[in-house]
C-alpha cells in the first residue's frame, strides 16, 4: 500500500496536530481525495478522531463514484472515527455530520444578512442554503470479518469561495461567498466546523440517534411537502414525513407510507440555478 501523500507546503494558520482543535489534524496542500487518504491512514492504524484536510482535491468523490468538484478555496475534510457501535448504527454519522455542517454554515452566514436564506438538511447527505447545495457528505466504513465496525470516514465538502455551474451538477449549487458571507478562508470554516462536529458527536454519544434525528428534523428541507425520490427506477413521489429510527426517508404517497434507505431527492422542476 503506498504511503499517504505528504503536504507540498506548510499550511497556516491551521497546522498539523493543532492542540486547539478537538481532532488530530493532518493537513495537505493537494490530495486525490481526503476520503481516499483517510482510508489509507485507516489501513496504517490511524487513531480515532484523526482529521484529514486538504486545500484542493484532484479526484474528489461523491456517492456512487460521482465527482465532487474541488477547486482551491473550498473546504475538503475527512474525519476518521472508530465508534464502539454496531455497524448499522454508524449510518447515523451522516446525519450527525449534516447537522454539524448546517450549524457551521449558519454560524458563518449568521452575520448581518438582511434576509437570510434558510440553512437546511436534505436527505440523506446534503446541506442546502436557500434550496441550493452548499455541502455534501460522503460516509465510508469497514467492518471486520466477524461484523464489527472497524472504522468510519466522514468526508465533508463545503463550498466556501465558489460553486459549480448548473451544467455540472444534478442539484443547483451555491457557496458561502455566493450567499453573502464575508471573505473567509477555508481553514477558518474548518475551525468552526470542527467545534460543531465535536458538539454534535457528543450529542449522538449522549442521546443516541433520537437526539440527532430530532436536530436533523428541525432543519429538514421540504418536511411535510411533496418530494420526488430517485431510487433507480421511476421516481417515488409523495409527502416527505421525516426520518425513521434507522435514518431511512419516510414518504407518504397515494399508495401509503414507504421507507427509502438509499436514493436522491430530486430537484423541483421549477428550481433554477
Ligand atoms: C456528495 O455526494 O454530496 C458527497 C460529497 C462529499 C465530498 C467530500 S470532500 C471531502 C471528502 N473527500 C472526497 O473525495 N469526498 C468527500 P452526492 O450526493 O453523490 O453528490 C454528488 C453530486 O453533487 C455530483 O454528481 C454533482 O451533481 C454535485 N456536485 C459535485 N461537486 C459539487 C460541489 N462542489 N458543490 C455542489 N454540488 C456538487
Question: Can you walk me through this structure?
Answer:
- With 273 residues, the chain is an alpha+beta fold.
- The chain has 2 domains: 9-218, 2-Layer Sandwich (BirA Bifunctional Protein, domain 2), CATH 3.30.930; 226-265, SH3 type barrels, CATH 2.30.30.100.
- The protein has 3 helices and 12 strands.
- The chain has helices at 34-43, 92-109, 186-218; strands at residues 24-31, 50-57, 75-81, 119-122, 126-129, 132-143, 149-158, 226-230, 236-243, 249-253, 256-260, 264-265.
- The protein has a 7-stranded mixed sheet, with helices on both faces. Strands 11-10-9-8-12 form a 5-stranded antiparallel sheet, with no helix packed on it.
- Helix 1 links the parallel strand 1 and strand 2 (50-57).
- Helix 2 (92-109) crosses helix 3.
- The protein is globular and about 50 Å long.
- The termini are far apart.
- Bound molecules: biotinyl-5-AMP (BT5).
Query: Whole-Å distance between the termini?
Result: 42 Å
CATH class of the largest domain: Alpha Beta
Low-confidence stretches: 1-13
Strand adjacency order, main sheet? 1-2-3-7-6-5-4
Number of helices: 3
Oligomer: single chain
Percent strand: 25-35%
Protein structure class: alpha+beta
CATH superfamily of the largest domain: Bira Bifunctional Protein, Domain 2
Tally of discrete structural domains:
2
Overall spatial form:
globular
- Helix content bin: 10-25%
CATH topology of the largest domain: BirA Bifunctional Protein, domain 2
**From the 3D coordinates, which CATH architecture of the largest domain would you assign?**
2-Layer Sandwich
Amino acid at each position: 500500500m503506498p504511503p499517504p501523500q505528504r503536504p507540498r507546503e506548510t499550511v497556516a494558520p491551521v497546522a498539523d496536530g493543532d492542540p486547539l482543535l478537538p481532532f488530530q489534524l493532518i493537513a495537505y496542500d493537494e490530495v486525490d481525495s481526503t476520503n481516499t487518504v483517510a482510508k489509507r491512514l485507516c489501513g496504517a492504524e490511524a487513531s480515532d478522531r484523526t482529521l484529514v484536510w486538504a486545500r484542493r482535491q484532484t479526484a474528489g468523490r461523491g456517492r456512487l463514484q460521482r465527482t465532487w468538484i474541488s477547486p482551491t478555496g473550498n473546504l475538503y475534510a475527512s474525519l476518521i472515527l472508530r465508534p464502539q457501535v454496531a455497524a448499522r448504527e454508524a449510518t447515523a454519522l451522516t446525519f450527525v455530520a449534516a447537522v454539524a455542517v448546517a450549524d457551521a454554515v449558519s454560524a458563518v452566514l449568521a452575520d448581518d444578512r438582511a434576509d437570510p436564506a434558510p440553512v437546511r438538511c436534505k436527505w440523506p447527505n446534503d446541506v442546502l442554503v436557500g434550496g441550493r447545495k452548499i455541502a455534501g457528505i460522503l460516509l465510508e466504513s469497514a467492518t471486520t470479518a466477524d461484523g464489527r465496525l472497524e472504522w468510519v470516514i466522514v468526508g465533508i465538502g463545503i463550498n466556501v469561495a465558489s460553486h459549480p455551474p448548473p451544467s455540472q451538477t444534478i442539484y443547483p449549487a451555491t457557496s458561502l461567498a455566493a450567499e453573502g458571507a464575508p471573505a473567509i478562508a477555508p481553514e477558518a470554516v474548518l475551525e468552526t466546523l470542527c467545534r460543531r462536529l465535536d458538539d454534535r458527536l457528543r450529542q449522538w454519544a449522549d442521546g443516541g440517534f433520537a437526539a440527532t434525528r430530532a436536530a436533523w428534523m428541525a432543519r429538514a428541507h421540504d418536511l411535510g411537502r411533496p418530494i420526488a425520490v430517485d431510487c433507480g427506477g421511476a421516481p417515488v413521489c409523495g409527502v416527505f414525513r421525516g426520518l425513521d429510527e434507522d435514518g431511512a426517508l419516510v414518504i407518504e404517497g397515494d399508495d401509503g407510507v414507504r421507507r427509502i434507505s438509499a436514493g436522491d431527492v430530486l430537484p423541483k422542476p421549477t428550481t433554477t440555478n
